[in-house]
Amino acid sequence: MSGPEKSRVPLFATMQRIPGGLMLIPLILGAVFGTFAPGALGIGSFTTALFQDSALPLIALLIFATGTQVSIRTGGPILAHAGVVLLMKSLIPATLVVLLGLGVGLDGLLGVSLLALLASMDNSNGGLWLAFSGQYGDERDRGAYVASAINDGPFLTLLFLGASGLGDIPFLALLGAIVPFLLGVLVGNIDAEWRKVVQPVPNIVIPFFAFSLGTGIDLGDIVTGGVTGLLLGLVIAPFTGFLVYVGYRYMLRRGPMSGMGFAAGTTAGNAIATPAVVAAADPRFEEYVGTATAQVAASALVTAIVAPLLAAYALKRAGALRQAGTADEPGPADDAADGPAGEPATKPADEPAGGAAGRPEQEQRA
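RE: above sequence
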């Protein structure tokens, strides 16, 4: 019997090795076509439908699939963590951006439009958060992924632009942006089988709608917007990450584990689609879409690298950078067992990994 089939060229695996690569690489390929062969994909029929006009339908499918993964059966601590992350990572930064926009207008500052600022700041990379919290956090941290499920997509951007009057966003456009998500939540909670069915959706649709979005981007915008996008990401990661850190430290009282909050200082890969969605609701934003999309893409890449580094540094400095995430923060008993400079003391060779003897006394009581 022959073994599993091997890839001759590991295209998918290569994209996944690059932070945000599943979206960034097709986006750039689409931009190449859009810049040098804009008519190549306009031959009609299925070719045009899939590679040039598919962005909004596929984004809608992704929003629905995201909704199915949100369970309403979550405990109080998990909801508290999700609420703090949502408040500090999305609602407060979005409010600050809107206040800035009321002063400077839609053009924003230093070549970064209000659309790019809002689309980059009011969301977070849920996949990265799950990966980092799964390695160093506990179930409360992992459960805070619900915040990413809520802020994922264009809804918060549309909501803040419409509520502030900066964008002429019709109510039906706001409703239309959230209906797929709400339907997904409903379906996922009444039929858990649907959650399993649509779990592969992100890996399927993201490359295709990213390519479709890319066909509307000029590479000149990528070059100019990419540079400012890199700077944007270098600001967003420490700024929004610090806000979540403050929430962890003073609202959730997580002590040494508060550094986990820096891992939320990211821009979601899905946010790359937000400028196009906003422009579809309010044509005044169309002139910003090309550059804003490139800036958001660059920010997604930079924050995916910088945010976990900041979180790891903060946890290590507090002596809390521990594998497999215990459910309680290091207490005095833990500190006494630590080695120099906050490093965990070496475990005996015969101690089972994750056994009761290796966990803090507080956790055993819990």
